[in-house]
Amino acid sequence: MNRIDERFRKLRESGERALMPYLTAGDPDLLTTRALILECEEQGADLIEIGVPFSDPLADGVTIQRASQRALQGGTTLTRILEMVSDLRAECQLPLLLMSYVNPIFHFGFTRFANEAAAAGVDGLIVPDLPPEEATELIEAAAAHNLHTIFLIAPTSRPERVRTIAAASKGFIYYVSLRGVTGVRSRLSDDLEASLRMIRAETDLPLAVGFGISTPEQVRRVATVADGVIVGSAIVSLLEQTAGQPDQLKRAGDFIASLKVATKK
Amino acid sequence: MSTLEKPTRADESNLSPLPDACGHFGRYGGKFVPETLMAALAELETVYLQAKTDPSFESEMRGYLRHYVGRPTPLYFARRLTEHLGGARIYLKREDLCHTGAHKINNTLGQILLACRMGKSRVIAETGAGQHGVATATVAARFGLACEVYMGTEDMRRQALNVVRMRLLGAKVTPVESGSRTLKDAINEAMRDWVTNVETTHYVLGSVLGAHPYPMMVRDFQSIIGREARAQILELEGRLPDYLVACVGGGSNSIGLFYDFLHEPAVRMIGVEAAGLGIESGRHAARFASGELGVLHGTLSFILQDGDGQIRPTHSVSAGLDYPSVGPEHSYYRDRGRIDFVSATDAEALEAFQLLSQLEGLIPALESAHAIAYVKKLAPTLGKDQIVAVNLSGRGDKDVEVVAELLKPLTPNS
Questions:
Q1: Between A106, A134, A152, which is nearest B309 by CB?
Q2: Which residues of A touch B30 (CB under 8 A)?
Q3: How far is the C-alpha of B177 from the C-alpha of B266, rounded, in Å?
Q4: Between chains, do A58 and B311 touch, taking CB under 8 Å as contact?
Q5: Which of residues 187-246 of A touch B (CB under 8 A)?
Q6: Which residues of A are catalytic?
Q7: Is B405 a known active-site residue?
Q8: In this predicted model, what pLDDT tens digit does every residue of B68-77 receive, in sequence order?
Q9: The predicted structure's pLDDT at residue B179
Q10: Which residues of A touch B298 (CB under 8 A)?
Q11: Comparison of pLDDT for B193 and B2, the residue scoring more
Q12: pLDDT interval class at B5 (50, 70, 90)
């Protein structure tokens, strides 16, 4: 069984929601990312989204753009990220997802990428600029290794499109909570509940919500309507602010713990 | 006579028209964008396809192209350039005479008419050389739409005149500091704006790039260049040209000229990319010289990238050619051997810039100067009975400052 399915099943049994932190791999280096993933696990995170840095991250706001730049300047590559995951796998039980723009994995080769990601112990793939229409090759290659392909639904997706996306997705669906790029926002969208209701009418897959969620209060609100909550920029921003400080890992861990508490009833 | 027959489709094999319903030109093209934009792309495609068969849209376009843009633009016989090069007869398609000084307005006019049909109150655009930004700001002013143009700070520096023009036209020009601070980064930022404001905003993409339907739609709006050129050369010479030459950044002026001739096997087509400081220097924008397949800004095409699929910085003296990807249709016709691609260096373009200025009294845009640079090599190899038609895609007023700067060390009394 894929670790993602297993995790959502357990959470459903215990009435909890998933906390899914996002980390830009290699910001500022892969050793730090490795330590952070283990710290997230320690503090109760349920799944980890590992961002593959790209030179032109057009779905991301400035925080993750800067993190991607730092990671690339530090020499982070897809190959080295896969090595890090493979090395980490013995110590980490969490479902691990890679989030990459399409070009780095297209260039790597979809089939080779699916093979190597699965071999390294990756459980799921999120490719924000690859809609299901263009994803046939990746979906097939991933399915051959029980690697889940997670697609995104946006506030602008209409019901017939939701059906297409749900049919292509495995593990869960990523709902983009707002029109815009990633980044911290002071308030959440008002139509979140109505949108999730519309999507639930079309699919039984768990729904995880991301984009703009940055505080325990916001996590608590989203957790009342979604199966999982994704927090990215707020964590990346904290890492940026605490860069080079001896208590960075602890402060990140405390923040993750505070977010996790908010996913419990 | 076959050359007088009206073309029905561009594909010379006379199979189905390109792109297919999903926006693919063979393996190229497609729709690689965040989900938030998929609905907007679908709406744009629907509205565009409706407009295309709507006689009132066509007559509206025709009216504005004639009375506002100034079409048809002349096809001008460059007698002194022809004599100087001593070979083929050279004709220049005078897109530099379009209102705002380049071919870009053919497309912005079409897209802004569509934006009005979609009820959008705001348009955004990216710009490199500033010509597309100026054309968008101009038409937005004419139709009373709010306009914001994204421009890399490196391009704002080298095309300062166009920044002033856009602001005079009432547009907001937003500097882009990320990445190489050129066209590629301006597109990233425009897409981020679009994804945020998609309900009220239409993104006026300036070239045959991006996700479907942009490469098809922008090509269609620009194809008037080739339709006019065909009629004009038949009138002037009684036959079709042997060669068509155009510079290729994203590819809108070249596909605009070539499209109506694609099914004419006797007409050879050459796209000229920017070789910058030379292909071997690595500092260029010649995608077909050393690019590989990849996805950038929503479309699959040839891309300058490194071994890890990261987009490589490009260089060209011409801001409008300084871009790491190229239109998907160009890649398709390049594979089929229908369009050949060559490149011209910064130095060759500068030389051609001066040559055309001095021989014909026409100051070309640095982009167009790349096409002239290749014609300088090509024309002398051809017979005097042969015909070369070149797209003079824009005028060079915007480049005067940059050129003056570059020529300074060469001018003894400065």
A1: A106
A2: 133-134
A3: 46
A4: no
A5: none
A6: 49, 60
A7: no
A8: 999 999 999 9
A9: 83
A10: 129
A11: B193
A12: very low
Out of A106, A129, A161, the one facing B294 most closely (by C-beta) is: A106
More confident residue, A19 or B410: A19
Alpha carbon B223 to chain centroid, angstroms: 11
Is the reported ipTM for this assembly greater than 0.90? Answer: yes
- What does the pLDDT look like over A3-40, one tens digit per residue? 999 999 999 999 999 999 999 999 999 999 999 999 99
Write down the pLDDT at residue B409.
74
Report the distance separating Cα A6 and Cα A25, nearest Å: 25
Contacts of A37 (CB under 8 A, 6+ apart): A23, A48, A50, A88, A92, A94, A96
Instruction: Tell me the shortest Cα–Cα distance from B140 to chain A, in angstroms.
Output: 24
Confidence of residue B10 (pLDDT cuts 50, 70, 90): very low
The verdict on a CB contact (< 8 Å) between A78 and B38 is: no
B150-187: pLDDT as tens digits = 999 999 998 899 999 999 999 999 999 988 899 999 99
Q: β-strand A228-231 against A18-24: which pairing, if any? A: parallel
Q: Which residues contact B364 (CB under 8 A, 6 or more apart)?
A: B96, B352, B353, B356, B357, B372, B392, B394, B395, B396
Indicate the SS3 state at residue B276: strand
Range of the domain at A102: 3-261
| Active-site position among B252, B301, B325, B393 | B393
pLDDT at A125: 98
Percent of chain A with pLDDT over 70: 100
- Residues of B within 8 A of A131 (CB-CB) are 31-33, 35, 38
Specify the pTM.
0.96
Residues in chain A with CB shorter than 8 Å from the CB of B36 are: 154-156, 176, 179-180
For the stretch B243-268, what's the b/e string if a residue is b when 16 or more beta carbons lie within 10 angstroms of its beta carbon? bbbbbbbbbbbbbbbbbbbbbbeebb
Cα A49 to its chain centre, rounded Å, is: 3
The residue behind tokens 């290794």 is A145
Can you tell me the mean pLDDT for A112-138?
A: 98
Q: Which residues in B lie closer than 8 A to residue A54 (C-beta atoms)?
A: 309-310
| Catalytic-labelled residue, pool B31, B104, B120, B184 | B104
Whether B52 is catalytic: no
> Can you tell me the distance from the alpha carbon of A52 to that of B367, in angstroms, rounded to the nearest whole number?
35
Residues 162-201 of B with CB under 8 A from A: 178-179, 184-185, 188, 191-192, 195-199
Angle A78-88/A110-120 helices, nearest 10 degrees? 20
pLDDT in tens, B243-302: 999 999 999 999 999 999 999 999 999 999 999 999 999 999 999 999 999 999 999 999
Looking at the structure of chain A, the number of domains it has is: 1
User: What average pLDDT does this structure show over B338-366?
Assistant: 98
Instruction: Give the number of A-B residue pairs with CB atoms closer than 8 Å.
Output: 113
In B17-171, where does DSSP find H-type helix? 38-52, 55-64, 79-85, 104-117, 131-143, 153-158, 160-168
- Of chain A, the percentage scoring pLDDT greater than 90 comes to 96
Contacts of A103 in chain B (CB under 8 A): 294-296, 303, 305, 309, 311
Inter-chain touch A78–B309, beta carbons under 8 Å: yes
Beta-sheet strand order (sheet of B28-29) = B24-25, B28-29, B299-303, B292-296
pLDDT at A249: 97
Find the CATH number of the domain harbouring A38: 3.20.20.70
Q: Say whether residue A130 is in contact with chain B using an 8 A CB cutoff.
A: yes
Question: Chain B 36-55, CB below 8 Å of chain A: which residues?
Answer: 36-40
